[in-house]
Write a structure and sequence with these properties.
Helix 1 packs parallel to helix 2. It is built from 7 helices and 6 strands. The protein starts with a strand and ends with a helix. It has about 170 residues and is an alpha/beta fold. Strand 1 and strand 2 form a beta hairpin.
């Protein structure tokens, strides 16, 4: 995993290795996982090509296999003045046009269009679908819920981004 520091930089979490080495490991793990599990759908959260492009090779491989590729975006993104240069630097637009089949916005169109002020081709805009919001359970009603069933196929594998803040989500 990686963690975002207060200055916006990223740092390897717990392995005491260089960030570039961590990103290479992440890319290899993501690709090998996709090769092994042969997913029916591949959802990338927020960063279209991964944190530092580590999902690019996996996206290309899965696209060739015909796996539906989905980008999930928060309904509130960075200011367009910050997001546009970042996406230009990372070459995101070609991925939105050529790799992704759908773009899911976590929220409602009545609340916010996260890409409203960004010039995007209509072909990309047509890929956008709003998912609505998920209801969060409180600790009190989560504890009273049913026990987790024994898993049988099919099942869902979920990861929490870099893992720096995902522990509470998994718990």
């Amino acid at each position: 995993g990686v963690i975002k520091l207060h200055n916006g930089e990223y740092k390897s979490l717990g392995l005491h290795i260089d960030l570039d080495q961590t990103m290479e490991m992440r890319a290899a793990i993501i690709l090998q996982t996709a090769l092994s599990f042969r997913p029916d759908l591949f959802l990338v959260d927020k960063e279209p090509l991964g944190l530092r492009g580590e999902v690019t090779d996996t996206l290309k491989m899965l696209k060739k296999r015909g796996t539906p590729l989905v980008l999930g975006l928060r309904d509130v993104m960075d200011e367009p003045s910050l997001l546009v240069p970042e996406w230009q630097r990372k070459k995101v637009l070609p991925a939105l046009q050529n790799l992704y089949d759908e773009i899911w916005v976590y929220g409602l169109p009545q609340i916010c269009d996260p890409l409203a002020e960004i010039k995007l081709p209509e072909s990309v805009r047509r890929k956008m679908a709003y998912t609505g919001y998920l209801r969060r359970a409180t600790a009190a009603n989560a504890a009273a819920g049913p026990a987790a069933p024994v898993l049988e196929e099919p099942y869902l594998v979920v990861t929490a981004g870099g893992g720096g803040d995902g522990e509470a989500l998994f718990d």
